[in-house]
Amino acid sequence: MTALSAGFNLLPAPRRSMGARRRVLRAWYAAIGAGVAGALVSGVAIRAGSMEAGGENARAIADLRGQIALSEAAIARERALLVGLRRDAETLELVRRRPDWTHLIAACARAVGEGGVLERITLEPASPSSPPRLAITGWAAEQTDVASGVLALERTGLLSGVRLVESKRAALGKSEAVRFSIEAFVVAKEATP
Amino acid sequence: MRHGLIGLDIGERRIRAVQLDASGARVHRTLCIVRPPVGGETLGDDECGRLADALDRLGFAGSRVSMVAPRAALCSSVLDLPPRATGAPIEKIAMGELAGRNRIDPERTELALWSTGEPGSRNGTERIIAVACAHEKAEAYVAPLERAGLRVEGMIPPTIALVQAMSVGRSHRIVLDLGWSSARVALVRDGLVLFDRAMQDAGLARVFERVGETLGARAEACEIAARRAGSPVERAINGEMEAFVRDLRRGVEEALGYGAKSARIDSPVEVCGGGAAIPALVARLQSAIGREVRPIEMVVSETTLEPAFASATGAARSEP
Predict the structure, then answer these.
(1) What is the pTM of this model?
(2) Average pLDDT of each block of 10 consecutive residues along chain B (320 residues)?
(3) Are B135 and A22 inside 8 Å of each other by CB?
(4) Preferred mutation among A1, A2, A11, A176 to probe B, highest tally of B CBs within 10 A
(5) Which residue of B5, B15, B79, B157 lies most exposed, with the fewest beta carbons within 10 A?
(6) How high is the ipTM of this complex?
(7) d(Cα B283, Cα B277) in Å, to the nearest integer?
Protein backbone atom coordinates (compact mmCIF):
# COMPACT_ATOMS: atom_id res chain seq x y z
CA MET A 1 0.00 0.00 0.00
CA THR A 2 1.26 3.47 -0.81
CA ALA A 3 1.57 4.79 2.68
CA LEU A 4 2.53 8.26 3.67
CA SER A 5 3.12 7.16 7.21
CA ALA A 6 5.65 4.48 7.99
CA GLY A 7 3.06 2.06 9.37
CA PHE A 8 -0.52 1.62 10.41
CA ASN A 9 -0.01 0.85 14.05
CA LEU A 10 -2.33 2.88 16.30
CA LEU A 11 -1.01 1.31 19.49
CA PRO A 12 -0.05 4.11 21.93
CA ALA A 13 3.63 5.00 21.55
CA PRO A 14 4.43 4.35 25.27
CA ARG A 15 3.09 0.80 24.84
CA ARG A 16 5.17 0.29 21.70
CA SER A 17 8.36 1.44 23.41
CA MET A 18 7.51 -0.79 26.41
CA GLY A 19 7.27 -3.73 24.00
CA ALA A 20 10.60 -2.79 22.44
CA ARG A 21 12.20 -2.63 25.92
CA ARG A 22 10.80 -6.10 26.68
CA ARG A 23 12.36 -7.45 23.50
CA VAL A 24 15.73 -5.90 24.41
CA LEU A 25 15.51 -7.38 27.92
CA ARG A 26 14.77 -10.82 26.50
CA ALA A 27 17.80 -10.51 24.22
CA TRP A 28 19.93 -9.52 27.24
CA TYR A 29 18.73 -12.48 29.28
CA ALA A 30 19.58 -14.79 26.39
CA ALA A 31 23.03 -13.22 26.04
CA ILE A 32 23.72 -13.48 29.81
CA GLY A 33 22.62 -17.11 29.79
CA ALA A 34 24.92 -17.85 26.88
CA GLY A 35 27.76 -16.02 28.70
CA VAL A 36 27.28 -18.06 31.87
CA ALA A 37 27.30 -21.28 29.88
CA GLY A 38 30.43 -20.15 28.02
CA ALA A 39 32.21 -19.28 31.28
CA LEU A 40 31.33 -22.68 32.65
CA VAL A 41 32.73 -24.51 29.61
CA SER A 42 35.88 -22.41 29.47
CA GLY A 43 36.37 -22.87 33.24
CA VAL A 44 36.27 -26.61 32.84
CA ALA A 45 38.67 -26.42 29.90
CA ILE A 46 41.13 -24.23 31.81
CA ARG A 47 40.90 -26.52 34.78
CA ALA A 48 41.72 -29.53 32.59
CA GLY A 49 44.68 -27.62 31.14
CA SER A 50 45.92 -26.71 34.61
CA MET A 51 45.69 -30.31 35.78
CA GLU A 52 47.89 -31.33 32.90
CA ALA A 53 50.42 -28.76 33.93
CA GLY A 54 50.68 -30.68 37.18
CA GLY A 55 49.99 -27.78 39.49
CA GLU A 56 52.97 -25.76 38.32
CA ASN A 57 51.00 -22.53 37.98
CA ALA A 58 49.26 -21.86 41.29
CA ARG A 59 47.98 -18.49 40.12
CA ALA A 60 46.17 -20.02 37.16
CA ILE A 61 44.53 -22.51 39.50
CA ALA A 62 43.39 -19.69 41.78
CA ASP A 63 41.86 -17.90 38.76
CA LEU A 64 40.19 -21.08 37.74
CA ARG A 65 38.70 -21.54 41.21
CA GLY A 66 37.42 -18.00 41.09
CA GLN A 67 35.69 -18.63 37.74
CA ILE A 68 34.21 -21.88 39.02
CA ALA A 69 32.84 -20.07 42.07
CA LEU A 70 31.26 -17.46 39.77
CA SER A 71 29.77 -20.16 37.57
CA GLU A 72 28.39 -22.01 40.61
CA ALA A 73 26.76 -18.80 41.83
CA ALA A 74 25.20 -18.31 38.39
CA ILE A 75 23.96 -21.91 38.40
CA ALA A 76 22.42 -21.40 41.85
CA ARG A 77 20.55 -18.34 40.56
CA GLU A 78 19.33 -20.23 37.51
CA ARG A 79 18.25 -23.13 39.73
CA ALA A 80 16.14 -20.78 41.87
CA LEU A 81 14.54 -19.47 38.66
CA LEU A 82 13.90 -23.03 37.51
CA VAL A 83 12.10 -23.84 40.78
CA GLY A 84 9.76 -20.90 40.19
CA LEU A 85 9.13 -21.90 36.59
CA ARG A 86 8.42 -25.51 37.59
CA ARG A 87 5.88 -24.27 40.15
CA ASP A 88 4.19 -22.17 37.45
CA ALA A 89 4.12 -25.18 35.11
CA GLU A 90 2.49 -27.33 37.80
CA THR A 91 -0.16 -24.67 38.37
CA LEU A 92 -0.84 -24.45 34.64
CA GLU A 93 -1.12 -28.24 34.43
CA LEU A 94 -3.71 -28.22 37.23
CA VAL A 95 -5.76 -25.59 35.41
CA ARG A 96 -5.46 -27.44 32.09
CA ARG A 97 -6.80 -30.68 33.58
CA ARG A 98 -10.11 -29.11 34.52
CA PRO A 99 -12.94 -30.63 32.52
CA ASP A 100 -13.83 -28.55 29.47
CA TRP A 101 -17.62 -28.54 29.42
CA THR A 102 -17.65 -26.68 26.11
CA HIS A 103 -16.97 -30.05 24.41
CA LEU A 104 -20.15 -31.46 25.97
CA ILE A 105 -22.18 -28.42 24.90
CA ALA A 106 -20.75 -28.65 21.37
CA ALA A 107 -21.56 -32.38 21.23
CA CYS A 108 -25.19 -31.71 22.28
CA ALA A 109 -25.50 -28.97 19.64
CA ARG A 110 -24.11 -31.29 16.96
CA ALA A 111 -26.45 -34.09 18.02
CA VAL A 112 -29.53 -31.89 17.77
CA GLY A 113 -28.30 -30.79 14.36
CA GLU A 114 -29.94 -28.33 12.03
CA GLY A 115 -33.42 -29.63 12.75
CA GLY A 116 -33.52 -28.09 16.21
CA VAL A 117 -32.18 -25.46 18.56
CA LEU A 118 -31.05 -25.83 22.16
CA GLU A 119 -32.69 -23.57 24.69
CA ARG A 120 -31.11 -24.63 27.96
CA ILE A 121 -28.52 -27.15 29.14
CA THR A 122 -28.35 -27.81 32.89
CA LEU A 123 -25.71 -29.98 34.55
CA GLU A 124 -26.24 -31.28 38.08
CA PRO A 125 -23.00 -32.23 39.81
CA ALA A 126 -22.26 -35.90 40.53
CA SER A 127 -23.33 -37.34 43.87
CA PRO A 128 -21.78 -40.42 45.57
CA SER A 129 -24.56 -42.56 44.07
CA SER A 130 -25.03 -40.91 40.67
CA PRO A 131 -22.89 -39.49 37.85
CA PRO A 132 -23.45 -35.87 36.70
CA ARG A 133 -26.99 -35.47 35.36
CA LEU A 134 -27.66 -33.45 32.22
CA ALA A 135 -31.01 -31.84 31.36
CA ILE A 136 -31.53 -30.41 27.88
CA THR A 137 -34.51 -28.40 26.63
CA GLY A 138 -35.01 -27.00 23.17
CA TRP A 139 -37.15 -26.67 20.07
CA ALA A 140 -37.30 -28.77 16.93
CA ALA A 141 -39.11 -28.44 13.65
CA GLU A 142 -40.59 -31.96 13.75
CA GLN A 143 -40.98 -34.91 16.13
CA THR A 144 -38.63 -36.91 13.90
CA ASP A 145 -35.92 -34.32 14.52
CA VAL A 146 -36.33 -34.89 18.28
CA ALA A 147 -36.10 -38.68 17.88
CA SER A 148 -33.00 -38.48 15.72
CA GLY A 149 -31.50 -36.01 18.24
CA VAL A 150 -32.00 -38.51 21.09
CA LEU A 151 -30.33 -41.26 19.05
CA ALA A 152 -27.46 -38.98 18.14
CA LEU A 153 -26.97 -38.04 21.83
CA GLU A 154 -26.74 -41.73 22.72
CA ARG A 155 -24.13 -42.24 20.04
CA THR A 156 -21.87 -39.40 21.30
CA GLY A 157 -20.30 -41.79 23.84
CA LEU A 158 -20.37 -38.94 26.38
CA LEU A 159 -23.83 -39.74 27.76
CA SER A 160 -25.70 -42.73 29.13
CA GLY A 161 -29.37 -43.34 29.99
CA VAL A 162 -30.56 -40.78 27.44
CA ARG A 163 -34.31 -40.33 28.06
CA LEU A 164 -36.91 -38.21 26.25
CA VAL A 165 -38.90 -36.60 29.07
CA GLU A 166 -41.22 -34.46 27.00
CA SER A 167 -41.89 -33.75 23.32
CA LYS A 168 -44.98 -31.78 22.31
CA ARG A 169 -46.00 -29.13 19.82
CA ALA A 170 -46.22 -25.61 21.18
CA ALA A 171 -46.44 -22.05 19.91
CA LEU A 172 -43.12 -20.40 18.98
CA GLY A 173 -43.61 -16.76 18.03
CA LYS A 174 -46.24 -16.76 15.33
CA SER A 175 -45.69 -20.35 14.28
CA GLU A 176 -45.48 -23.79 15.93
CA ALA A 177 -42.60 -26.11 16.78
CA VAL A 178 -41.92 -29.15 18.94
CA ARG A 179 -40.71 -28.35 22.43
CA PHE A 180 -38.58 -31.14 23.85
CA SER A 181 -36.90 -32.04 27.11
CA ILE A 182 -34.21 -34.71 27.41
CA GLU A 183 -32.37 -36.16 30.41
CA ALA A 184 -29.14 -38.12 30.45
CA PHE A 185 -26.14 -38.96 32.61
CA VAL A 186 -22.61 -37.88 31.76
CA VAL A 187 -20.30 -40.86 31.37
CA ALA A 188 -17.35 -40.38 33.75
CA LYS A 189 -14.08 -40.57 31.87
CA GLU A 190 -10.55 -40.01 33.06
CA ALA A 191 -9.25 -36.69 31.71
CA THR A 192 -6.47 -37.27 29.26
CA PRO A 193 -3.48 -35.02 29.80
CA MET B 1 6.85 -24.77 14.25
CA ARG B 2 6.78 -20.97 14.57
CA HIS B 3 3.57 -19.00 14.39
CA GLY B 4 2.55 -15.47 13.60
CA LEU B 5 0.71 -12.93 15.71
CA ILE B 6 -2.75 -13.64 17.08
CA GLY B 7 -5.11 -11.40 15.09
CA LEU B 8 -7.92 -10.18 17.34
CA ASP B 9 -11.18 -8.54 16.25
CA ILE B 10 -13.22 -7.31 19.22
CA GLY B 11 -16.76 -6.68 18.08
CA GLU B 12 -19.70 -5.59 20.16
CA ARG B 13 -21.14 -9.11 20.24
CA ARG B 14 -18.29 -11.45 19.39
CA ILE B 15 -14.54 -11.66 19.73
CA ARG B 16 -12.80 -13.44 16.87
CA ALA B 17 -9.19 -14.51 16.73
CA VAL B 18 -7.05 -16.01 13.97
CA GLN B 19 -3.48 -17.20 14.06
CA LEU B 20 -1.54 -18.14 10.92
CA ASP B 21 1.76 -19.96 10.71
CA ALA B 22 4.95 -17.89 10.52
CA SER B 23 4.83 -17.74 6.71
CA GLY B 24 1.18 -16.62 6.75
CA ALA B 25 0.32 -19.42 4.32
CA ARG B 26 -1.70 -21.65 6.64
CA VAL B 27 -4.31 -21.14 9.34
CA HIS B 28 -3.07 -22.42 12.69
CA ARG B 29 -6.09 -21.72 14.91
CA THR B 30 -9.35 -19.73 14.90
CA LEU B 31 -11.64 -18.75 17.74
CA CYS B 32 -15.00 -17.05 18.05
CA ILE B 33 -16.51 -16.34 21.44
CA VAL B 34 -19.78 -14.63 22.21
CA ARG B 35 -19.47 -11.60 24.48
CA PRO B 36 -21.82 -11.07 27.40
CA PRO B 37 -24.76 -8.83 26.45
CA VAL B 38 -23.48 -6.07 28.74
CA GLY B 39 -20.03 -6.15 27.08
CA GLY B 40 -20.64 -3.50 24.47
CA GLU B 41 -17.79 -1.11 23.98
CA THR B 42 -15.99 -1.82 27.23
CA LEU B 43 -13.64 -4.70 27.88
CA GLY B 44 -13.33 -6.01 31.42
CA ASP B 45 -10.57 -7.93 33.19
CA ASP B 46 -12.83 -11.00 33.62
CA GLU B 47 -13.66 -11.10 29.94
CA CYS B 48 -10.01 -10.72 28.92
CA GLY B 49 -9.04 -13.45 31.39
CA ARG B 50 -11.58 -15.80 29.80
CA LEU B 51 -10.33 -14.85 26.34
CA ALA B 52 -6.70 -15.58 27.30
CA ASP B 53 -7.77 -18.94 28.81
CA ALA B 54 -9.72 -19.84 25.67
CA LEU B 55 -6.79 -18.95 23.40
CA ASP B 56 -4.49 -21.11 25.52
CA ARG B 57 -6.96 -24.01 25.68
CA LEU B 58 -7.55 -23.98 21.92
CA GLY B 59 -3.83 -24.19 21.20
CA PHE B 60 -2.98 -20.67 20.03
CA ALA B 61 0.79 -20.28 20.23
CA GLY B 62 2.41 -17.50 22.26
CA SER B 63 0.72 -14.38 23.52
CA ARG B 64 1.65 -11.74 20.90
CA VAL B 65 -1.48 -10.01 19.67
CA SER B 66 -2.30 -7.63 16.85
CA MET B 67 -5.80 -6.26 17.26
CA VAL B 68 -8.17 -4.45 14.95
CA ALA B 69 -8.64 -0.97 16.37
CA PRO B 70 -12.14 -0.91 17.87
CA ARG B 71 -14.45 1.32 15.82
CA ALA B 72 -15.53 3.22 18.93
CA ALA B 73 -11.95 4.32 19.64
CA LEU B 74 -11.29 5.86 16.23
CA CYS B 75 -11.83 9.12 14.45
CA SER B 76 -11.04 9.56 10.78
CA SER B 77 -11.15 12.16 8.06
CA VAL B 78 -10.46 12.70 4.38
CA LEU B 79 -8.03 15.60 3.89
CA ASP B 80 -6.59 17.44 0.90
CA LEU B 81 -2.94 18.09 1.74
CA PRO B 82 0.19 19.13 -0.17
CA PRO B 83 2.18 16.16 -1.53
CA ARG B 84 4.94 14.88 0.72
CA ALA B 85 7.48 15.71 -1.99
CA THR B 86 6.94 19.40 -1.23
CA GLY B 87 8.45 18.85 2.21
CA ALA B 88 5.22 19.75 4.01
CA PRO B 89 4.88 18.17 7.49
CA ILE B 90 1.97 15.92 6.43
CA GLU B 91 1.59 14.08 9.75
CA LYS B 92 1.57 17.30 11.77
CA ILE B 93 -1.00 18.97 9.53
CA ALA B 94 -3.24 15.88 9.51
CA MET B 95 -2.97 15.46 13.27
CA GLY B 96 -3.80 19.13 13.78
CA GLU B 97 -6.90 18.82 11.59
CA LEU B 98 -8.15 15.66 13.32
CA ALA B 99 -7.39 17.01 16.80
CA GLY B 100 -9.29 20.19 16.08
CA ARG B 101 -12.33 18.43 14.62
CA ASN B 102 -12.53 15.75 17.31
CA ARG B 103 -11.19 17.66 20.33
CA ILE B 104 -8.40 15.25 21.11
CA ASP B 105 -4.93 15.91 22.50
CA PRO B 106 -2.47 15.49 19.59
CA GLU B 107 0.31 14.67 22.05
CA ARG B 108 -1.63 11.66 23.30
CA THR B 109 -2.98 10.35 20.01
CA GLU B 110 -1.64 7.97 17.36
CA LEU B 111 -2.14 8.62 13.66
CA ALA B 112 -2.14 6.45 10.55
CA LEU B 113 -2.57 8.01 7.13
CA TRP B 114 -2.21 7.14 3.49
CA SER B 115 -2.56 8.81 0.14
CA THR B 116 -5.37 7.68 -2.13
CA GLY B 117 -3.17 8.68 -5.06
CA GLU B 118 -5.89 11.03 -6.29
CA PRO B 119 -5.69 14.84 -6.60
CA GLY B 120 -7.45 16.89 -3.93
CA SER B 121 -10.13 19.46 -4.66
CA ARG B 122 -7.62 22.32 -4.32
CA ASN B 123 -4.81 22.76 -6.82
CA GLY B 124 -1.55 21.09 -5.93
CA THR B 125 -3.01 18.89 -3.20
CA GLU B 126 -3.56 15.16 -2.94
CA ARG B 127 -6.27 13.25 -1.13
CA ILE B 128 -5.30 11.70 2.18
CA ILE B 129 -7.27 9.37 4.47
CA ALA B 130 -6.23 9.84 8.09
CA VAL B 131 -7.26 7.70 11.06
CA ALA B 132 -6.46 8.60 14.66
CA CYS B 133 -6.84 6.87 18.00
CA ALA B 134 -6.50 8.65 21.35
CA HIS B 135 -4.26 6.85 23.86
CA GLU B 136 -6.96 6.97 26.49
CA LYS B 137 -9.44 5.14 24.26
CA ALA B 138 -6.86 2.61 23.08
CA GLU B 139 -5.80 1.89 26.67
CA ALA B 140 -9.37 0.94 27.61
CA TYR B 141 -8.88 -2.12 25.37
CA VAL B 142 -5.13 -2.75 25.58
CA ALA B 143 -4.68 -2.53 29.36
CA PRO B 144 -7.12 -5.36 30.30
CA LEU B 145 -5.68 -7.57 27.53
CA GLU B 146 -2.15 -7.00 28.88
CA ARG B 147 -3.30 -7.68 32.45
CA ALA B 148 -4.67 -11.02 31.19
CA GLY B 149 -1.18 -11.96 30.00
CA LEU B 150 -1.52 -11.05 26.30
CA ARG B 151 1.10 -8.82 24.70
CA VAL B 152 -0.56 -6.35 22.37
CA GLU B 153 1.96 -5.34 19.70
CA GLY B 154 -0.28 -3.80 17.10
CA MET B 155 -3.56 -1.92 16.69
CA ILE B 156 -4.56 -1.83 13.02
CA PRO B 157 -7.23 0.45 11.48
CA PRO B 158 -10.25 -1.70 10.50
CA THR B 159 -10.09 -0.94 6.78
CA ILE B 160 -6.38 -1.73 6.63
CA ALA B 161 -7.11 -5.05 8.35
CA LEU B 162 -9.75 -5.83 5.70
CA VAL B 163 -7.36 -5.00 2.85
CA GLN B 164 -4.66 -7.21 4.35
CA ALA B 165 -7.15 -10.08 4.56
CA MET B 166 -8.07 -9.89 0.86
CA SER B 167 -6.17 -11.70 -1.81
CA VAL B 168 -4.79 -9.37 -4.45
CA GLY B 169 -6.71 -9.80 -7.68
CA ARG B 170 -9.21 -7.46 -9.25
CA SER B 171 -8.21 -3.82 -9.66
CA HIS B 172 -11.30 -2.38 -7.92
CA ARG B 173 -13.04 -4.03 -4.98
CA ILE B 174 -16.01 -2.82 -2.99
CA VAL B 175 -16.13 -4.25 0.51
CA LEU B 176 -19.11 -3.99 2.83
CA ASP B 177 -18.39 -4.95 6.44
CA LEU B 178 -21.70 -5.65 8.21
CA GLY B 179 -21.20 -5.65 11.96
CA TRP B 180 -23.67 -5.80 14.81
CA SER B 181 -23.62 -2.11 15.72
CA SER B 182 -22.28 -0.47 12.56
CA ALA B 183 -21.34 -1.08 8.94
CA ARG B 184 -18.39 0.06 6.88
CA VAL B 185 -18.01 0.43 3.14
CA ALA B 186 -14.63 0.67 1.47
CA LEU B 187 -13.48 1.00 -2.12
CA VAL B 188 -10.09 -0.57 -2.72
CA ARG B 189 -7.97 -0.30 -5.88
CA ASP B 190 -4.91 -2.54 -6.23
CA GLY B 191 -4.70 -2.89 -2.44
CA LEU B 192 -5.04 0.88 -1.86
CA VAL B 193 -8.03 2.20 0.09
CA LEU B 194 -9.62 5.01 -1.94
CA PHE B 195 -12.85 5.41 -0.01
CA ASP B 196 -13.70 4.43 3.55
CA ARG B 197 -16.97 5.26 5.24
CA ALA B 198 -18.32 4.05 8.58
CA MET B 199 -22.12 3.91 8.86
CA GLN B 200 -22.83 4.12 12.57
CA ASP B 201 -26.54 3.31 12.49
CA ALA B 202 -26.36 0.55 9.89
CA GLY B 203 -25.56 -2.40 12.14
CA LEU B 204 -27.44 -5.70 12.18
CA ALA B 205 -28.80 -4.85 15.64
CA ARG B 206 -31.14 -2.35 13.99
CA VAL B 207 -32.95 -5.18 12.16
CA PHE B 208 -32.68 -8.03 14.65
CA GLU B 209 -33.73 -6.08 17.73
CA ARG B 210 -37.05 -5.32 16.00
CA VAL B 211 -37.35 -8.90 14.71
CA GLY B 212 -36.71 -10.11 18.26
CA GLU B 213 -39.48 -7.89 19.60
CA THR B 214 -41.89 -9.22 16.95
CA LEU B 215 -41.09 -12.88 17.63
CA GLY B 216 -40.68 -12.54 21.39
CA ALA B 217 -37.12 -13.86 21.21
CA ARG B 218 -33.64 -12.46 21.83
CA ALA B 219 -32.19 -10.47 18.94
CA GLU B 220 -28.99 -12.58 18.99
CA ALA B 221 -31.02 -15.80 18.68
CA CYS B 222 -32.92 -14.38 15.70
CA GLU B 223 -29.63 -13.45 13.99
CA ILE B 224 -28.29 -16.99 14.45
CA ALA B 225 -31.55 -18.51 13.15
CA ALA B 226 -31.46 -16.22 10.11
CA ARG B 227 -28.15 -17.73 8.99
CA ARG B 228 -30.01 -20.78 7.76
CA ALA B 229 -31.49 -20.37 4.31
CA GLY B 230 -35.25 -20.91 4.40
CA SER B 231 -35.43 -20.24 8.14
CA PRO B 232 -38.88 -19.11 9.40
CA VAL B 233 -37.13 -16.02 10.74
CA GLU B 234 -36.47 -14.90 7.16
CA ARG B 235 -40.07 -13.75 6.75
CA ALA B 236 -39.79 -11.54 9.81
CA ILE B 237 -36.47 -10.10 8.60
CA ASN B 238 -37.84 -9.20 5.19
CA GLY B 239 -40.43 -7.02 6.88
CA GLU B 240 -37.79 -5.07 8.80
CA MET B 241 -35.04 -4.70 6.23
CA GLU B 242 -36.28 -2.06 3.85
CA ALA B 243 -34.85 1.08 5.51
CA PHE B 244 -31.71 -0.79 6.57
CA VAL B 245 -30.95 -2.00 3.03
CA ARG B 246 -31.72 1.46 1.67
CA ASP B 247 -29.05 3.00 3.93
CA LEU B 248 -26.51 0.35 2.95
CA ARG B 249 -27.28 0.88 -0.74
CA ARG B 250 -26.71 4.61 -0.29
CA GLY B 251 -23.27 3.91 1.24
CA VAL B 252 -22.30 1.54 -1.56
CA GLU B 253 -23.51 3.96 -4.24
CA GLU B 254 -21.47 6.73 -2.63
CA ALA B 255 -18.35 4.53 -2.83
CA LEU B 256 -19.11 3.55 -6.43
CA GLY B 257 -19.77 7.17 -7.36
CA TYR B 258 -16.42 8.18 -5.92
CA GLY B 259 -14.57 5.44 -7.80
CA ALA B 260 -16.46 6.02 -11.06
CA LYS B 261 -14.81 9.43 -11.41
CA SER B 262 -11.62 7.72 -12.54
CA ALA B 263 -12.69 4.30 -13.86
CA ARG B 264 -15.67 2.13 -14.69
CA ILE B 265 -16.28 -0.33 -11.85
CA ASP B 266 -17.88 -3.68 -12.64
CA SER B 267 -16.77 -5.55 -9.53
CA PRO B 268 -19.28 -7.29 -7.27
CA VAL B 269 -19.87 -6.03 -3.75
CA GLU B 270 -18.03 -8.31 -1.31
CA VAL B 271 -19.66 -8.62 2.10
CA CYS B 272 -17.86 -9.56 5.31
CA GLY B 273 -18.67 -9.40 9.02
CA GLY B 274 -21.62 -11.15 10.65
CA GLY B 275 -24.05 -9.97 7.95
CA ALA B 276 -22.26 -12.01 5.28
CA ALA B 277 -23.63 -15.18 6.86
CA ILE B 278 -27.27 -14.17 6.40
CA PRO B 279 -28.43 -15.31 2.94
CA ALA B 280 -31.68 -13.32 2.99
CA LEU B 281 -29.78 -10.10 3.66
CA VAL B 282 -27.21 -10.77 0.94
CA ALA B 283 -29.98 -11.54 -1.59
CA ARG B 284 -31.94 -8.43 -0.61
CA LEU B 285 -28.83 -6.25 -0.94
CA GLN B 286 -28.17 -7.69 -4.39
CA SER B 287 -31.62 -6.80 -5.67
CA ALA B 288 -31.45 -3.33 -4.06
CA ILE B 289 -27.98 -2.44 -5.34
CA GLY B 290 -28.48 -4.00 -8.77
CA ARG B 291 -25.11 -5.71 -8.98
CA GLU B 292 -23.72 -8.98 -7.67
CA VAL B 293 -23.36 -9.10 -3.88
CA ARG B 294 -21.52 -12.05 -2.36
CA PRO B 295 -19.66 -13.01 0.81
CA ILE B 296 -15.95 -12.24 0.60
CA GLU B 297 -13.76 -15.25 -0.26
CA MET B 298 -11.32 -15.95 2.53
CA VAL B 299 -9.06 -18.77 1.45
CA VAL B 300 -5.76 -19.29 3.26
CA SER B 301 -3.99 -22.24 1.63
CA GLU B 302 -6.54 -25.09 1.73
CA THR B 303 -8.59 -23.57 4.56
CA THR B 304 -11.69 -21.51 3.83
CA LEU B 305 -12.47 -19.06 6.58
CA GLU B 306 -15.88 -17.57 7.22
CA PRO B 307 -16.16 -13.98 5.95
CA ALA B 308 -16.70 -12.88 9.56
CA PHE B 309 -13.03 -13.68 10.22
CA ALA B 310 -11.79 -11.20 7.59
CA SER B 311 -10.72 -8.44 10.00
CA ALA B 312 -9.04 -10.83 12.45
CA THR B 313 -7.16 -12.48 9.56
CA GLY B 314 -5.98 -9.09 8.32
CA ALA B 315 -4.74 -8.21 11.81
CA ALA B 316 -2.95 -11.56 12.02
CA ARG B 317 -1.18 -10.75 8.74
CA SER B 318 -0.05 -7.32 9.88
CA GLU B 319 3.52 -6.57 10.86
CA PRO B 320 3.34 -3.80 13.40
Answers:
(1) 0.65
(2) 87 91 87 77 86 93 93 88 86 90 90 87 86 93 94 92 78 88 89 87 87 86 84 80 89 86 82 90 91 86 84 87
(3) no
(4) A11
(5) B79
(6) 0.85
(7) 11
